[in-house]
Amino acid sequence: MSGSSKLFLAFVACVALAMSPAVAEQGVTADSIAIGSFGPITGPAAYIGLAGRDGAALAIKEINAAGGINGRKINMIFEDDGHSPAKALAAVKKLIDEDKVFMVFNVAGSNGTVGTIDYVKEKGIVMFVSFASAPAVTWPFARNLFRGGTTEVPRYGELYAEYIVDGLNAKKIGIIGGREEYPKNEGDALTKQLQKWYEIAPVKRVEFNIGDKDFTPQLLEMQQVSPDVIAFFGNPAEAAIALRQAKELGLNQPFFVGTTMVDQGLLTAAGAAAEGVTGFALIPLLPSSSDPAMKAWRAKWNAEYPNLPPNRPNIFDVLGYADMYVVAEAMRNAGKDLTTDRFIDALENLHDYRVGAIASPRTFTKIHHIGNLRLQPMQVKNGEWAQVPWESKRPSDILARYH
Amino acid sequence: MTWRIALQLVLSGLSVGSIYAIVALALAIPFKASRVLNFAQGELVTLGAYIGLVLTSYGLPYAAMVPATLLVAAAFGILIERLFIRPIVDAPEFTLVIATFAIGIIIRALVRIHWQDNTFFLPAPYSGPALPVGPLRVNPSYLVIIGSTTLLVALLVLFFRQTRYGKAMRAVAFNQTAARLMGIGVGRVFGSAWALAAAIGALAGLLLAPVIGINPELGHLMLKALVAAVIGGFGSLGGAAFGGLLLGVLETYAGALFGAAFKEIIPFGILIAFLLVRPQGLWGPTQARV
């Protein structure tokens, strides 16, 4: 081959390279982006994963119908983690190593999530955690891990402690909590913060197993110490049974519940026994809200999933939907040449982005990857969750490290 | 512990135990007739609740839905027996147990395909806030569960002692060959036993649904029901029912006195103790094997 021919071929190769879309990144082709997702869709925590999956799927359907992300359609591959850290790790390994996804969209609970964090850090793939509150997702900081709708659970601890002591005027606090990661973290965070800010130790802290159907032993222990407030951390089905049994045993203390229970599911299951219960909501409008924005979204959701029970959509449907839009927005901003680095940069440049009034705004920076730092206190009044006009006044130790 | 709490615990234990008792009865009936230990019984509880859910969604009022559910469940029981059990009824007991396991897994998987693991609620007209009864607070759902169990045991005792068909089922349980020689349709008795077990399982599902909701794991209490049946004796319906009630009360008291962890230990500790000391249970025939 002559020198001029070689030069011509090199020129053609350079032009072809420059004109072709970047397809080298794992999970990204000329016309698609593969997103791996996992969460519990079987077992007692299925209300989390089913809802997260369905909410995200609805968002993807809309995004693809509107033309996709810079000409690429999103393709979601979903795995069930059964709410188990081991199964979650197996799911993530499959998604990253076999399915070769571009990123992982996590709609698991904390229990599943904690099993995956080290592996995801090692692989460098972005994992966007929609609602697990396990601190290890964002603390210590990792460049490829983000959280959407929830703050770190130590922040829950601050808000819970301040609201229970200052808002509910409680000095004697009893805690009933599940043994798994999320309720245990919530109980630990509340206990730690009560001690730190108010020098109060819970008068009693008792545990139960996920899926338990009888809380008589735990409630009797509470009865013996007569707390001002009973904090309950677990799942809505468990809380509903505990609330009913508490009334049967004559415990009339107010109940404070963790964030997963501030939803219609608790009211459906507990009925009148839920009256007066307080807790913090993760989203500005609960799915049962009569706000026009939520009503419109609910109508859209019902059209897509017409045969699901009245306790759906739940807060995790909303979070999965809203956070998939967050991910899509960052991918769009990353440009046609979608790489993990560009995607992370785009996420870190999102400021107060939200898909609509149903979602809280998401902001990420180069020093914190927690999208939502706000929680709204709520109380059950006349069978409905209603906002409580209460604002935190204490400076947050957790938020201080992100300023 | 005050008297009021002690009585409240008894009530709570009897409520839980009544469900164990119903499922234990459903386990004991086909075992009496055909020596088949039905490990799909938990899923028949689940199936019953979903049948009730479907019928309710078609607008059937509660009073009509309950008998309709029991009938549909009974038809399922006959179908399972004819399609899967009768062809292998002479196989070793282990084979039959594995077959029922497989049937249970298939039922649960089919339920999951359609409804997934969403929790559905089936409101009952008797559901409502706890009622004050003297010093106690009584959940009306629990009263219905306890009442239904009592009525069911009475009806089953009458059926097996007073009716020709009940006596035929007892004859088959006692000696299949002799029963066949006496002109009893053994196959039909097997089918009836499965129909009855499925209908009773469905009743348990309908009773549980308003209390804990409906999802594919609703019938997860199968192992506890097995313990109840072992305590009472597999050959004795009254024994199985008593075993369920006793187990419920013991379990509740164990949790109240020693902590929640003991609630899981006590039932299976009792199971092992009975298998070691009195494998035939309190009222079961001495040749019973589990």
Question: What are the SSEs and their pairings?
Answer:
The complex is a heterodimer of chains A (403) and B (290).
Chain A: H1 3-19, E1 32-39, H2 46-65, E2 73-80, H3 85-98, E3 103-106, H4 110-113, H5 117-123, E4 126-129, E5 145-147, H6 153-167, E6 173-178, H7 181-198, E7 204-208, H8 216-225, E8 229-233, H9 236-248, E9 255-257, H10 264-270, E10 278-281, H11 292-304, H12 315-334, H13 340-348, E11 376-381, E12 384-387, H14 397-400
Parallel strand pairs in A: 1-2, 1-3, 3-4, 4-5, 6-7, 6-8, 8-9, 9-10
Antiparallel strand pairs in A: 10-11, 11-12
Chain B: H1 3-34, H2 41-57, H3 62-85, H4 93-115, E1 131-133, E2 136-138, H5 140-162, H6 164-174, H7 176-181, H8 186-212, H9 222-232, H10 237-258, H11 261-277
Antiparallel strand pairs in B: 1-2
Helix pairs in contact in B: 1-5, 1-6, 1-8, 1-9, 1-10, 2-3, 2-4, 2-8, 3-8, 5-6, 6-8, 9-10, 9-11, 10-11
Tally of helical runs of chain A = 14
β-strand percent of chain B reads: under 5%
Rounded to the nearest angstrom, the distance between the terminal CA atoms of chain A is 62 Å
Shape of chain B: globular
Q: Roughly how much helix do the residues of chain A carry, as a percent range?
A: 40-55%
Poorly predicted regions of chain B are none
How many β-strands of chain B, per DSSP?
2
CATH homologous group name of the largest domain in chain A: Response regulator
- Total separate domains of chain B: 1
One letter per element, helices H and strands E, the order of chain B comes to HHHHEEHHHHHHH
- What's the architecture of the largest domain in chain A in CATH terms? 3-Layer(aba) Sandwich
Beta-strand fraction estimate of chain A: 5-15%
